[in-house]
Design brief:
Chain A is α+β, with helices and mostly antiparallel strands and about 550 residues long. Chain A has 17 helices and 20 strands. In chain A, helix 8 runs parallel beside helix 9, helix 10 runs antiparallel to helix 12 and helix 11 packs antiparallel against helix 13. Classes of the chains: A alpha+beta (about 550), B mainly alpha (about 325).
Chain lengths: ~550, ~325
């Protein structure tokens, strides 16, 4: 390992020894650079993170999951989490990011990044077979990657990885080794390989419709797939990954995904009665189920803090939000404790008008602005609105926490002079114009690294035009330069120093308010064991088992 | 109905202005008395009346019968059950449910919020029904009186409208023009028009054959005079009963639109959206926020139906 180790690992290790980075951050960064999680844990002086509970695991049984069963054709086209949660039982990813945002090799044995982070060598795990008997080799990986970049397929991965990689940069070295030659340095490759549409396909049999040839390397095989009804998978006996008892996983005989519609109450009652063991919250909010089931003795509730948030976004190219005083005034009209308490039942962390979460590795602690309508009023006066102003706030009515956020803000911003008119619309309508409205509240998904989201939403492209997801059109020269610097900085502590500046700029003159970061939950019946509460709501069922 | 025709026959033509007013007042008093007698005679109508009067009274006196503003949030007390401080409890933002119900009734029955600061008297449901009456009556009168191809065109167009399921039609209209109180009025008016028009047309077909209409035609009265002075007043009995039922439908429509997120924008105390939001908390042990507005909608609609039914039965009996 030491021979192939990335030079930055030594720096990281010395930072760890000097106490500059925490053990968790060290493990995270070291694993990204190709050290195995066990190795990194050892270097950090921790015990091996193996779980020793082989004695009590029971094999057999069926797990029933309430989940929407959408139409599935090409996995690279996934734009919803739930279908990926069904297909990921059958087919797998090259890497795996766990609940602590640490990325592990999965179908890969390991990876190495060059010193300049522009060449990545991916080594495949050997001896893995697809469930139809074909061997898993680099041909499958190259085929799948080419699918991602194929315009006809239209995968979101092209948007994610296209900025630094094109199909010509994918080089097959041998049957078990691939090299990626990047256009720009990128540190988050292993995390991107775990993006939910990045399922590895069988190059021999895949012809555009996964359900017709459901050949993956995963622990289960497809038995039945009825759109809008159910998806049933059963265990395969020759899965490559071994369980705690030394035999191949998975422990369950089968998993049944049952489509119960989108209304939460039937699913909650099904949980209470034991008709289902688990609800898939990939695409539906779990907060109602959490509120209903948190005190129920028949279920286990596993919370997970996430980097998912609701962003109060102001278009800086439109009046009155072009004036930073007006933006600041609205931001300090957020009574954050109240918003988190009422809008999301206190289940999360407070936000600081910065799109970097306290759970991001490079987060730099920053003060939480206080609710101050007096100061806001003075700011509005200075900005030329002594009598206050009328503004429209667009929200999707399908996100109850966002509607509550808006209602609370309306009430609390009134003393400062903001007369907010809440414009509700169906979520689909909000998504049609989320980048267009001048003032609105948008949901932003969990992303494991701070730079990922800042690069998506707060910068301009090479021509100076705000990037596609820059919904507020806010582009700040100093901010962009610092962010570029952060993108190429490996050392967490150095990155954090840059992030201190980035966060300060965004808080002081940025275009967003954010009052809270949300928690999510995995809720299971008591008989279900070893389910990981994943911040992206991915379901991992190879290790899961059920008591008799 | 026949009795009332007799009184209407001497409405036209000149008389001293003062005499006309006193006769009108007299007539008004007599009619009110007749209506009261009718009401008193019917237990059904009385129960309905009580329910309706309760909600109208609550709506009119909303600022006096509540302690809190309907939008005042108490973030320390969300989703509370009934208590001394909040007689019906609080919703998910700690707002007093009784106060929201009372102000919600106001929007339904007493005021129409045109913008957030400007409102006009007459509730959203009432304006909706009134507008559908105006439109429907005009179309029905013309169609029934003129007949022929005008009748065909109007009625076939309205039939086409009626073939669209009502809730779908509401959704299409509100989704197209946006959610606001005025647009809800428009939606109720548009959806209600075909029904009113059919009813008025039917009545007109009957009334236009009467002698007093012939007499007016012979006198050379204009079509507007005949439609609105000769025919419409003589058709008003069934129209009033129908309108009462229609207010009930309009309240349902408001509830439905609010429930589907297309009613009045938050934080308006819209009954339908109160049910929709409160529904989220039923399973977590706070059914109040969904229960009370549902009870309010049901009691007001049932009240209006009982009142209309009772009145109709009694009126038929006298005939």
């Amino acid at each position: 390992m030491s021979k192939e180790m990335h030079p930055a690992i030594q720096d990281l290790k010395s930072d760890l020894e000097k106490g500059k980075v925490s053990r968790r951050q060290f493990i995270r960064m070291a694993t990204l650079l190709g050290v195995s999680a066990a190795g990194a844990a050892q270097m950090a002086g921790l015990a091996l993170p193996a779980k020793l509970f082989a004695a009590k695991i029971r094999r057999g049984g069926t797990l029933r999951v309430a989940a929407p069963v959408h139409k599935v054709t090409h996995p690279a086209q996934f734009s919803w989490i739930s279908p990926s949660n069904q297909i990921r039982q059958i087919a797998e990813y090259l890497t795996y990011t766990d609940a602590n945002n640490i990325t592990h090799p999965y179908l890969l044995k390991n990876w190495q990044a060059s010193d300049d982070l522009k060449t990545w060598t991916l080594n495949l795990r050997r001896g893995i077979r697809f469930n139809n008997g074909d061997e898993f080799t680099t041909d499958d990986v190259v085929f799948t990657m080419n699918q991602w970049f194929d315009k006809k397929v239209g995968s979101s991965i092209k948007g994610l990885m296209g900025a630094y990689l094109n199909p010509q940069g994918i080089e097959k070295v041998s049957k078990y080794q691939i090299k990626l030659h990047l256009k720009n340095p990128e540190i988050a490759i292993p995390e991107h390989l775990f993006h939910y549409p990045a399922v590895i396909l069988n190059h021999r049999t895949f012809q555009g419709d996964f359900i017709k040839a459901p050949h993956g390397t995963g622990p289960y095989t497809l038995v039945k797939f009825l759109e809008g009804e159910r998806c049933v998978v059963k265990r395969r006996n020759d899965y490559w990954n071994k369980g705690a008892d030394g035999k191949p996983m998975p422990y369950l005989d089968s998993v049944e995904f049952v489509d119960m519609g989108t209304e939460m109450p039937p699913m909650i009652s099904a949980m209470q009665s034991g008709d289902v063991d688990l609800i898939d919250f990939g695409d539906i909010s779990g907060v109602q189920a959490y509120e209903a089931l948190k005190k129920d003795a028949r279920v286990n509730v596993y919370p997970v803090t996430t980097n998912q948030t609701r962003i109060l976004r102001m278009r800086v190219d439109m009046k009155p939000w072009s004036d930073n005083r007006v933006r600041t005034a609205l931001k300090i009209c957020q009574h954050r404790e109240k918003i988190l308490g009422l809008a999301y039942f206190g289940q999360g962390l407070l936000g600081q008008d910065v799109h970097v979460s306290p759970k991001h590795p490079e987060y730099c602690p920053i003060d939480t602005p206080k609710y101050d309508p007096e100061k806001a009023k003075a700011l509005l006066k200075k900005a030329g609105y002594p009598n206050g102003l009328d503004v429209n706030l667009a929200v999707g009515s399908g996100w109850p926490e966002i509607v509550r956020y808006a209602e609370i803000l309306k009430q609390d911003a009134a003393p400062a002079g903001f007369r907010i008119k809440i414009q509700t619309m169906p979520n689909s309508q909000y998504w049609e114009k989320w980048t267009e409205v001048d003032l609105g509240i948008t949901t932003w998904a969990h992303r494991p690294i701070g730079t990922m989201v800042l690069n998506l939403a707060y910068v301009a492209d090479d021509k100076g035009k705000p990037v596609a997801w820059n919904e507020t059109r806010w582009v700040d020269k100093e901010f962009s330069a610092l962010l570029k610097q952060a993108n190429g900085t490996l050392d967490v502590e150095k990155r954090r120093k840059i992030f201190c500046k980035l966060e300060k700029i965004q808080q002081e003159r940025g275009s967003i308010g954010n009052a809270f970061w949300i928690n999510l939950w995995t809720i299971t019946r008591k008989r279900v064991h070893d389910i990981e509460a994943n911040p992206s709501q991915y379901l991992w069922l190879d290790r899961a088992w059920v008591a008799a | 109905m026949i009795q009332r025709q007799a009184t209407n026959e001497n409405v036209p033509e000149s008389a001293g202005n003062g005499a006309a007013v006193s006769r009108f007042l007299d007539g008004g008093w007599r009619k009110t008395k007749n209506a009261a007698v009718l009401l008193w005679a019917s237990k059904t109508a009385m129960v309905g009346l009580l329910l309706v009067v309760f909600w109208v009274g609550t709506a009119l006196l909303a600022p006096y019968v509540t302690r809190y503003s309907p939008t005042e949030q108490d973030w320390k007390a969300p989703n509370q059950g009934p208590s001394i401080h909040h007689i019906l409890g609080t919703d998910e933002l700690g707002r007093d449910l009784w106060s929201r119900l009372a102000y919600g009734a106001r929007i339904v029955l007493v005021i129409l919020p045109v913008t957030e600061k400007f409102w006009i008297p007459g509730g959203t449901a009432i304006w909706g029904v009134f507008a559908s009456l105006l439109l429907g009556a005009a179309l029905g009168l013309v169609s029934g009186y003129r007949g022929g191809w005008i009748d065909e065109i109007i009625m076939r167009a309205l039939d086409a409208m009626m073939s669209i399921p009502i809730i779908l039609l509401y959704l299409i209209i509100v989704a197209a023009i946006g959610a606001s109180a005025v647009n809800v009025v428009l939606a109720i008016a548009i959806v209600g028009t075909p029904g009113v028009a059919r009813l008025v047309r039917g009545l007109t077909l009957d009334i236009r054959t009467r002698d007093y209409v012939r007499a007016a035609e012979t006198r050379g009265e204009g079509i507007l005079y005949i439609l609105f002075v000769e025919i419409l007043p003589n058709a008003k009995g069934p129209i009033i009963i129908d309108a009462m039922l229609r207010v009930g439908y309009a309240i349902f429509a408001m509830g439905t639109l609010g429930f589907l997120g297309l009613g009045l924008p938050p934080p308006s105390p819209d009954w339908g959206s109160m049910v929709a939001k409160g529904r989220e908390f039923i399973l977590s042990g706070s059914p109040w926020a969904a229960l009370w507005p549902a009870v309010a909608i049901a009691s007001l609609v049932v009240g209006l139906n009982l009142l209309a039914d009772g009145l109709r039965e009694e009126a038929m009996r006298y005939q």
